[in-house]
Amino acid sequence: MSLNRVVTVPFNALKPAEDAADVKAAIDRVLASGWFILGPEVEAFEREFAAASKIPYAVGVGTGTDAITLILRALDIGPGDEVITAPLSAAYSALAIMMAGARPVFADIDPERLTLDAASTEAAITSRTRAIMPVHLYGQAADMRAIEAIAARHHLAIVEDAAQAHLATVDGRPIGTIGIAAASSFYPTKNLGAAGDGGAVLTRDAQLAARVKRLRNGGQTSRYHHEEFGVNSRLDEMQAAILRARLAYLPAWTAKRRAIAARYRVALSGANAGAGGRALGKGATVIVPREFDAGHVYHLFPVLTAARDRFQSHMKDRGIETLIHYPVPIPRQPALSATSPAMCPIADLVCSQVVSLPMYPGLTDQSIAAVVEAASTFGE
Predict the structure, then answer these.
(1) Is 159 helix (H, G, I), strand (E, B) or coil?
(2) Alpha-carbon distance 283 to 71, whole Å?
(3) CA 38, CA 117: separation in Å to the nearest integer?
(4) Is 0.90 surpassed by the pTM of this model?
(5) Phi and psi dihedrals of 220, rounded to 5?
(6) Contact between residue 205 and residue 57 where contact means Cβ atoms under 8 Å apart
């Protein structure tokens, strides 16, 4: 084992780089304006993000978690209702359903796509089910054709968790335009990240957009007049201005992520790698999940291996930082125990094997080559 434990390729880099001057100008503009909450920057970002997402309406809110909760509340989904969702995601997906007062119901994942499995979803439907919430995980869309068919058969709403899928498409259709609404997150690590928390609701429904705008601001119809029980979840002017600056870079950053992913796929298609597909790694085999659609935006680049601890140690010895997304399936989180969650064996297996390689636009050719060399020599 090498004694070199110096990180030469960090997992991510969040400091402004090529966008630094534009981000600084955006911050200075807000400071000079003296307007910090629900002002012209938020309104402009909502228009610009909606246009980039090819959808009529975007509503800025405090977090991606709040975006999910507010969508459900705007649909009058709450106590006594169930929302079917995926067990493989950040726990905030399910916590947001609980925040609306509804019960998250977990259907297992497809072992190849790693997103919500259609057959498991249909089997989980009960008389209390009001919505299906697929998670577009790692930047790849869920199987939306199958989910749309199920939702239509059972008269259910589709709420898309698109927190990791800015500008992603499926079958040529923009993510967020398929269901009644979608939730976006601007947490700093996201493909479009703020310098703090932030989120947005995307929708084609003018009435839903209007209600979310009301709910995010205490249920006010006008200042100090509260028509309904709302919350305080407002995207602030500073974050909106920063996001506006960075939105212009997002198409190029997305192209860079796809190019990095292509290099990783080529490198891991050799003798030491699985062909991609099922989460059934054995020994030192490294499996790369399939790309099902060219609209994948590669928020993360996960691989699967039954020898995850050894793989991470191997990468660390070579200066490559890796992380796990996610080590515990949501149904096994103690915070969800009161919901009597169904166990999901495929998600359990994936969570025991998944590990993410560095994936961000600032990776240099030298860094990409280092990751490729380290990952492709695992098991030799």
Answers:
(1) strand
(2) 44
(3) 39
(4) yes
(5) -80, 135
(6) yes
